[in-house]
Design brief:
- This protein has 508 residues and is an all-beta fold.
- It has helices at residues 56-59, 148-152, 249-252; strands at residues 15-19, 82-90, 95-100, 111-114, 124-135, 138-145, 156-162, 168-172, 177-184, 234-236, 256-265, 270-271, 279-295, 306-330, 336-349, 352-391, 395-408, 412-431, 434-450, 459-472, 486-502.
- The chain folds into two domains: 15-154, no CATH class; 158-185 and 237-246 and 257-502, no CATH class.
- The chain is built from three helices and 21 strands.
């Protein structure tokens, strides 16, 4: 049953952390070894961290959920940051209205960080450019961009958080797509272990509906081919993993599983087969995880030593593709959208909220040319990560990793053509309301057939594979690092494996 668009619940009062300019960038928090916890009363739905202990002073700050950062090298009783409510925020016009706690004030250069709220749905990070007025305890200010080093100073944060049900919003974009409310998973799509995947060694059982010949029935493990550096990230409420690693089974049980039911017609020109109407159907399951890393130590260099931002997770596609083509069929050069998924997580660094969001659009595409009949029922499972990693020695590099395995029953393929069905996921990852990285994962099944030549038998094959691309964007300067626009630079992985087949096909 389709689920209508629903908003992520956020508190009515917008609360932020104000870091006084006089403290500099090296004096925000005393320790960040623990994942931290938001102050009482301002936790966004679904962001609870059962592994983190609440800050005692923040929790006692009152019903408004005000938070106070305690600089480690500030004199006792002086120079402490203060709690702030974000009464109004307009990022485009660079204006904000702040309400500091009683007896406190706001100054030019102060850094404001706010968790998601009705004034800033993706959170906010900015500096006070100028105080332009005050009234009734509220202070009107102009804003200028702030960077993570200005907010976090000298900290080490290594997190990978699985999104919880309250942190996901799903919107169907095509008829024939049903959405099950995100809920904690209990099992779900299995993902290959880290490193090269290995075949299961168990051939699929022939269904007896293809050409009368033995099939090469082998699962299609896609070996990791990433060149991206691996950074050890500590999972929030889950086992620790590197950016592209699949979580172990015991950690996967607690993750949120998003399920999309798919039953969409294939484009005009595709006819029914003897087994089914022309359609792409099945189920997509996805367990999203957001990645954030920041590491900066004291010294004259104002830039972090290491950083990372990205989206990862495990997925499973249950494919059922049926169609007969007598000519050309194509859903179009642009893939057809199936559903949009929005996720948001607050990484609490002590009392400071670091807001990482993602938008994922699932799509499909079907192309065929010539005369071909395709009946295929397969299951593809895997894990992936897209994003960017940084270290001072090499600069920004793509986080581009994938593991994949496909197996299922023997298909029915005949004719003299090629047909390809693709399920795609276009993802963007944001820090606060600032764009950072984007990526595309495209998983495909391809059936090829060729007529008999001479005294030979017809040839056919079913293959599976993926394409993974990452884009780095100029807005990664929120880390304090100026970079060139790399959106046109290709960072791509590709793999394709033959699942079943008979005879020798001509070169593609």
């Amino acid at each position: 049953m389709a689920v209508s668009w629903r908003r992520i619940a956020v508190p009515a009062a917008a609360v932020g952390v104000l870091v006084p300019a006089a403290l500099g960038t090296h004096a925000l928090l005393s320790d960040s070894k623990d994942s931290g916890s938001p102050p009482a009363g301002i936790r966004t739905a679904g962001t609870a961290d059962p592994d983190a202990a609440a800050d005692a002073d923040a929790a006692a700050a009152g019903p408004e959920g005000a938070v106070v950062a305690k600089p480690s090298n500030a004199p006792a009783g002086a120079g402490r940051s203060v709690s702030v409510q974000l009464a109004f925020y307009d990022a485009r016009r660079k204006q904000a209205v702040l309400k500091p706690s009683a007896g406190k004030s706001v100054h030019t250069g102060d850094v404001i960080a706010a968790a998601p709220n009705r004034h800033a749905p993706s959170g906010a990070l900015f500096k006070v450019g100028k105080v332009t007025g005050s009234r009734g305890g509220e202070v009107q200010v102009t804003t200028v961009p702030a960077t993570l080093p200005e907010l976090l100073g000298d900290q080490k944060v290594d997190r990978r958080a699985a999104l919880r049900p309250g942190e996901l919003t799903v919107k169907p974009l095509s008829s024939g797509v049903s959405v099950r409310n995100p809920s904690p998973g209990t099992g779900g799509p299995a993902t290959p272990p880290d490193g090269a995947s290995t075949p299961s060694g168990e051939p699929s059982t022939p269904a007896g509906d293809g050409p009368d010949a033995s099939a090469e029935a082998s699962p299609s493990p896609s070996v990791t081919a990433s060149q991206a550096p691996r950074n050890g990230l500590r999972g929030t409420g889950a086992a620790a993993t590197a950016p592209g690693e699949a979580l172990p089974p015991e950690a996967r049980k607690g993750l949120t599983t998003l399920r999309l039911g798919i039953n969409v017609p294939l484009p005009k020109g595709v006819e029914a087969t003897s087994k089914s109407p022309a359609r792409l159907s099945g189920e997509v399951t996805f367990r999203p995880e957001l990645i954030f890393q920041y590491n900066k130590r004291g010294g004259v260099n104002l830039l972090p030593e290491r950083a990372a931002i990205g989206l990862g997770g495990s997925y499973s596609y249950g494919w059922q593709v049926h169609g007969k083509v007598r000519g050309t069929a194509d859903t179009g050069q642009v893939s057809v959208p199936l559903a949009a998924v929005t996720g948001r997580h607050v990484f609490w660094v002590g009392p400071v909220p670091v807001v990482v969001s993602t938008e994922v659009t699932f799509t499909y595409r079907f192309t065929a040319g010539g005369r071909i009949v395709l009946d295929a029922d397969q299951r593809t499972t895997g894990s992936f990560a897209v994003g960017a990693t940084y270290d001072r020695g090499h600069g920004w590099q793509p986080l581009n990793e994938a593991h994949q395995q496909t197996k299922g029953a023997r298909p029915h393929i005949e004719g003299a053509a090629t047909a390809t069905a693709r399920l795609g996921a276009h993802a963007q990852v944001f820090l606060y309301d600032t764009a950072g990285v984007g990526g595309d994962l495209s998983v495909h099944l391809t059936g090829r057939a060729a007529a008999a030549t001479g005294h030979g038998a017809p040839a056919w094959a079913l293959s599976a594979g993926y394409d993974l691309k990452t884009q780095l964007m100029l807005q990664l300067k929120i880390f304090g690092i100026q970079i060139v626009d790399l959106r046109t630079t290709p960072f791509a992985l590709h793999d394709e494996r033959k699942l079943f087949g008979q005879g020798k096909l001509p070169s593609a």
